[in-house]
Write a structure and sequence with these properties.
Elements: H1 12-16, E1 19-25, E2 28-34, H2 41-60, H3 62-75, E3 81-87, E4 93-99, H4 106-110, H5 124-132, H6 139-145, E5 149-151, H7 158-167, E6 180-182, H8 184-187, H9 196-208, H10 212-225
Parallel strand pairs: 5-6
Antiparallel strand pairs: 1-2, 3-4
Length: about 230
């Protein structure tokens, strides 16, 4: 009534990662920040979607799995699959499965390094698999086993998690939910060599504003972006 303008300076990460609603308390205007985390029936619903989706994906994509496996074997010596430790729910480590896209022993030469557009460690077929994200398909097995979800913050390696948690506010809050094969940050172009600060903002928004419709939206946008994502490498 008094036409008073109120301005606040909250944590930018908190504002982006919460829903705001306007209400009042005894006539006083109040802003309510509501976290919508995955709990109760929502968690069961998401797990059911993960099990059904990953099982269907593994069945229908099995011919593609065989084709990719054959191309990898023909392209370079070494195993078809590659396992790497990543951090998931509650920052617990687990082995992530991928189709091998690098030369065998490549990381023994370089150590853990951030993926780059012209990564010399990639094989010929590996460059294509990374560009189209087809190297991630074996993670359907991780989803079926319960280590991952179809949608969620992308899991990072322990060495990078330790680096990021020291410089990015609320970075570890990403681990409040399961890691995903794809996520809100990724479908908004934040993958590869992009800002980890911006990526974390989008991850936190997803964690605290989850809905079934949001998951479906992310999955559909992921399918559309497979051959159009310039940051996939």
């Amino acid at each position: 009534r008094g036409n008073v303008v109120i301005k606040v300076f909250p944590d930018v990460f908190q504002i982006m990662a919460t829903e705001l609603s306007l209400g009042d308390l005894n006539g006083l205007p109040m802003l309510t920040m509501r976290n919508v985390a995955l709990r109760g029936w929502r968690l069961s619903l998401k797990r059911a979607m993960d099990v059904v989706g990953s099982a269907i994906g593994l069945i229908f994509l099995s011919p593609l799995f065989l084709l990719i496996a054959l191309l990898i074997k023909l392209d370079s010596p070494g195993p078809v699959f590659y396992s790497q430790i990543r951090m998931g729910l509650d920052a617990r480590p687990f082995p992530v499965l991928k189709f091998r896209s690098m030369r065998v022993g490549a990381e023994d030469e370089t150590g853990p390094v951030w993926a780059s557009r012209e990564d010399p460690r990639r094989t010929r077929i590996g460059a294509f698999l990374r560009r189209t994200s087809l190297d991630e398909l074996p993670q359907l097995i991780n989803v079926l086993l319960g280590d991952m979800s179809l949608v969620g913050p992308r899991p990072e390696r322990p060495v990078f998690v330790e680096q990021f948690r020291q410089v990015v506010p609320r970075y570890m809050d990403r681990h409040r939910e399961k890691a995903g094969m794809t996520g809100w940050a990724q479908v908004n172009g934040l993958r590869g060599d992009t800002s980890i600060v911006e990526r974390t903002k989008y991850d936190l928004y997803y964690v605290e504003n989850w809905s079934l419709l949001l998951d479906i939206k992310i999955l559909l946008r992921t399918l559309v972006s497979i051959f159009r994502d310039r940051n996939a490498y």
